[in-house]
Specification:
Layout: E1 6-7, E2 15-18, E3 22-24, H1 27-61, H2 68-86, H3 89-109, H4 113-130, H5 134-150
Antiparallel strand pairs: 1-2, 2-3
Helix pairs in contact: 2-3, 2-5, 3-4, 4-5
Amino acid sequence: MRDGPQYPRGDGLEVFFDPAFGYTANSFNRNWVTNMTYKNTLAALVAGTLTVFGVGAYAQQSVAPESPHEKEAVKHAKEAVVHGKQGHADVLIEHAEEAKKHAIMASKDFSSYSLQNAINHLDEAITHGKKGDAKVATTHLEEALKVLESGAPQDPNQP
């Protein structure tokens, strides 16, 4: 026998009252309702969790908004690379210093490992340019340009 009051029906199925689910025809229906409730709850929980992680992943993609200073730093770094490939160390230094100034200003707006890495490469480019080594300076400028254009950290151990 079932718990709760039972009410006879004409078709042989017993009807009982379950306080959580109301009147149900038999235990199969009660379990079906219970299972559907759990399934719906689980589906809502999974959908909510995926939504939260999806929004987090989407927000992670655009961490650093590209500022006008970053654009100027990229422009000057490209100019410095062009002059470095031509062997003009003095013009390379001018553009590398301008690119460094803009990268520093961009890092004040939004500091990141990428910008710090680019500033370090620009420092190295300026140092080698002052020594007259345009080839090594150009290599550092190209690395700084890669970092500035990608916006992603070059070191996989860094966030």
